[in-house]
Amino acid sequence: MPEARWFNDTRIRIHSPSLVESEARQGNMPPLHVHDEDETFYVLEGRLSLHLPGESVEIGPGESAFGPRGIPHTYRVESAEDARWLVTTSDGEFAAFVAETSSPAENGGYAPVEAMPAPEALAAAGARHGIVILGPPGALPAGV
Questions:
Q1: pTM above the 0.90 mark?
Q2: Burial grade of 122 (CB within 10 A; 0-12, 13-18, 19 or more)
Q3: Which residues of the chain have a pLDDT value below 50?
Q4: Which helix (H) or strand (E) holds 40?
Q5: Burial 31-67 (b: 16+ CB within 10 A, else e)
Q6: Dist. CA 33–CA 132, nearest whole Å
């Protein structure tokens, strides 16, 4: 099993260049962003909402949702407890971004605030991997 890593306030395991496993608490929501690659979310435990321009979809265990390349999106953990899901991407840049901006998890929990990268560092690393941060956590795509 790959090592657990702290990626902001999410626990991540990079299984391959195109497969990342994520675990996060209720309310976890990354910044609004856009990728140069397609992204598919598959929920193992809990519930997630995927927010795309003009639509939101909530998915649970055994369900998936597609985030096409070039389309602004974000997700939010909706379950009362933690959620766990897989993210597959079409070219592996997301996994490279995660590897660059994460650190080995020091315990079974989530990263303390001081272990999270600064927003500017996250944006700069994203740009190197075809990811553009469009807004802060909590920002939604147009029409949602």
A1: yes
A2: buried
A3: none
A4: strand 39-45
A5: bbbbbebebbbbbeebbbbbbbeeebeebeeeeebeb
A6: 5
Residue 17 CB neighbour total at 10 angstroms: 14
Provide the pLDDT for residue 107.
84
What's CA 90's distance to the chain center, in Å?
A: 15
The token pair at 61 is 């265990």
Q: Taking a C-beta distance cutoff of 8 angstroms, is the pair 44, 81 a contact? A: no
Total Cβ atoms within 10 A of residue 118: 8
Bridge pairing between strands 39-45 and 31-35 = unpaired
Residue 130, both tokens: 């075809």
What domains does the chain contain, in order, with CATH numbers? 5-131 (2.60.120.10)
**Residue 91 region by backbone torsions, left for phi larger than 0, else alpha for psi between -120 and 50, else beta:** alpha
Burial of 140 (0-12, 13-18, 19+ CB in 10 A): middle
Edge-to-edge strands, sheet with 74-77: 55-59, 48-52, 74-77
